[in-house]
């Protein structure tokens, strides 16, 4: 089976390459703190604090020694969604008495509201800041350790096992689909808009499901033969240290400072 590049958007199975403060941070504290910090960013109402949040997220990526390229790829995934806000909201936000608007010639029905643009930019900045935080959250710990931390926080352990097994074997099923597709093309199959193509595609999907189910049974039998009884061995022992609490306190202080800056300074 040819090797395939792993999916960059999810945590690695093996240990992370770089060692940093974020890598050594207890995964339970990291998950809770970054999620709380993300909610703090989402609650911001002004553009300037949202831009500061982007700076904080970028600084965290530097500290974690993770890839800026991967973070930009995550931003690319939401670029279309954010662009729609920037395009639609300036024309759709209701006009208030103190708003600055731009009217295009004699088209009174087409009003460009600068307040709507500012609101859209604020939403976009918050989305960028939160998306950038996902890179240090996901890339600074192996996937089994992250899922183990979630189970310690109360997430059902079976859900974590399902995610882990799906990650491990999804690329196997993808390779199986490619192999079957190549076999069909070698036998002369070409896609057309007719009933024969629909029948061939239906047979292809049915056979893929059957083979995937058979592979799943073999994997489960192999797991039971190795002593699986509903739980995986713990991938790491989690020990809460004083440094973990200090980092958590620093993060929460930064989130509180952002909210104070947004609510008191900017609004005042």
UniProtKB/TrEMBL annotation:
<dbReference type="GO" id="GO:0006824">
    <property type="term" value="P:cobalt ion transport"/>
</dbReference>
<dbReference type="InterPro" id="IPR003339">
    <property type="entry name" value="ABC/ECF_trnsptr_transmembrane"/>
</dbReference>
<keyword id="KW-1003">Cell membrane</keyword>
<protein>
    <recommendedName>
        <fullName>Cobalt ECF transporter T component CbiQ</fullName>
    </recommendedName>
</protein>
<keyword id="KW-1133">Transmembrane helix</keyword>
<feature type="transmembrane region" description="Helical">
    <location>
        <begin position="71"/>
        <end position="92"/>
    </location>
</feature>
<keyword id="KW-0812">Transmembrane</keyword>
<feature type="transmembrane region" description="Helical">
    <location>
        <begin position="112"/>
        <end position="134"/>
    </location>
</feature>
<dbReference type="Pfam" id="PF02361">
    <property type="entry name" value="CbiQ"/>
</dbReference>
<feature type="transmembrane region" description="Helical">
    <location>
        <begin position="31"/>
        <end position="64"/>
    </location>
</feature>
<keyword id="KW-0472">Membrane</keyword>
<dbReference type="InterPro" id="IPR051611">
    <property type="entry name" value="ECF_transporter_component"/>
</dbReference>
<dbReference type="InterPro" id="IPR012809">
    <property type="entry name" value="ECF_CbiQ"/>
</dbReference>
<dbReference type="GO" id="GO:0043190">
    <property type="term" value="C:ATP-binding cassette (ABC) transporter complex"/>
</dbReference>
